[in-house]
Structures are given as structure tokens and as C-alpha cells.
Amino acid sequence: MIEIKSESEVSLIQEAGRIVKAVLEEVSSAAAPGVTTGELDRKAEELIKRFNARPAFKGYKGFPGSICASVNEQVVHGIPGKTVLRAGDILSIDVGVEKKGFYADAAVTVEIGDTVSRGARELIKATRDALNAGIKKAVQGNRLFDISYAVQDYAERLGYSVVRDFVGHGIGRKMHEEPEIPNFGKPGTGSRLRRGMVLAIEPMINQGGFEIEILSNGWTAVTKDRKLSAHFEHTVCVTDKEPKILT
Ligand code: MG
């Protein structure tokens, strides 16, 4: 069952979402050659606490960071630490925040320095645009997998692949609620979307094949072929008009 949120619940998710947005902006602008992912993590945690909120990822199933920081071939769940960012890297930053009992979740992929390859830049743009294609379908009356199909279709037309092993999710009083939102699927199928559903839509798009592996740290997913991967995510509320982006 997909929960329908009241207007006041949506406002509370949006309050958490504004913090997520601010943290992503701060961390993105601090992400530069020579900086470690651990430093970015500390910056994020400080800022979240300044907002009297809680970093939702920290301690979640034992995850040690306040952000996920996934470099280059890392798809998601990169553990922030001693990794030094280098010019030409791409970095996916995922942030979740809990405020007053409600969660919001979003991610971006950014370029490190000015020497990122054209291929990497195009992958980043395609992933952002695939997310936007999915968000456009988050409208009352559509079906859940209309979102999934829109993401897949956008990415695959450009020759990329979509990760199968991780999916988007409902969000609200818990970080992960029903439904699961795959980034692939058949249009016109899945649950009917209704006003007040809040969804975290999050395509992970690979330059090569869609297969992934988990590193020996038990967390970090990398592409099996070690080609690049990008990740964008927004928390979105379904309305009867335009989808409302809460992050
Ligand atoms: Mg998420």
C-alpha cells in the first residue's frame, strides 16, 4: 500500500527537503581536487546539525557516513573517508535528512575540477535529464511504472544502461516506504499514482553495462565493467498538476 500524505505531512517532508538541498549545494561547491570525501562528510553532518536535523544515513543498517560519496565507477553507497578527489573525477553525493520525524532524500553527481572528460560530462547530463523525464510522469492518474519507463527510455536511447539492483522508493515517516520504484519497466503498469504520494526517484545510469558488484566493505556498489556511473535523486510529491519537487 502506498501511503497518501496530508498537506501538513508534505510540508514537513519539504522542511527536511530544504535541508537536503542546502547540504547538497554546500557539499557540491566544496567538492574539489585535493579534498577528501571524509571532509565533505563532516561538512554535511555539521550543517545538518545546525538545522537541528539528523543525518538519516548515519547508522542506518550500520552505514558509517552522513552522506554517500561515490567516485567514478562507484554507483552508490560510497563510504566517505580517506579518498582524495582528483581533477577529472566525478562524484555522486547522496544526502538523507530526518527532521521532526519526516525524511527527505536527494542526490547529485558533480564534476571535480575543470578537466572532466566529455563522456563523463555527457553521462552526468543524461542522468539528470533521465530523472527529470521520470519526475514529469509523477502525476495523478499515471501508473507507477510510467516513471520507470520514462527514465529507462531516456537513458537507453542515448546508449547508456540503467542499474537494476537499486531502486527508488516511497518516503515519509520512514526513509524507505512502499513502493519500490525501479528505473526500468513497462509503461501503463504498476500502481495508480494519486495526489499526496511522496516518492524518491533516483536513476543510477551507467556508461557501460548495468551489472554491478559490491565491494568487500559490504556497502559500495561499483559497475562490474568499472566504467562510470552517475546518480541523481529528488523527493517528489504527486499532485493533480505539476509534480512538486520537495528537495
Ligand atoms: Mg533514496
Q: Enumerate how many helices there are, as a single number.
A: 4
Spatially, the strands of the biggest sheet line up as: 8-7-9-14-15
Strand count: 15
Relative helix content: 25-40%
Describe the main β-sheet briefly: 5 strands, antiparallel
Shape: globular
Rounded to the nearest angstrom, the distance between the terminal CA atoms is 24 Å
Query: Average pLDDT value?
Result: 98
Bound small molecules, by name, code or SMILES, are:
magnesium ion
User: How much strand?
Assistant: 25-35%
Report the order of strands and helices.
HHEEEEEHHEEEEEEEEEE
Radius of gyration: 17 Å
Query: Which secondary-structure class do the elements indicate?
Result: alpha+beta
Task: List strands and helices in order, with pairings.
Blueprint: H1 7-30, H2 37-50, E1 54-55, E2 67-71, E3 74-76, E4 90-99, E5 102-111, H3 118-136, H4 144-157, E6 161-162, E7 168-170, E8 177-181, E9 198-201, E10 204-206, E11 212-214, E12 221-223, E13 229-231, E14 234-237, E15 244-245
Antiparallel strand pairs: 1-4, 2-4, 3-12, 4-5, 6-10, 7-8, 7-9, 9-14, 10-13, 11-12, 14-15
Magnesium ion binds at residues 105, 169, 200, 202, 233.
Compact summary:
The chain has 247 residues and is of the alpha+beta class. It has helices spanning 7-30, 37-50, 118-136, 144-157, and strands at residues 54-55, 67-71, 74-76, 90-99, 102-111, 161-162, 168-170, 177-181, 198-201, 204-206, 212-214, 221-223, 229-231, 234-237, 244-245. Helices cover 29% and strands 25% of the residues.
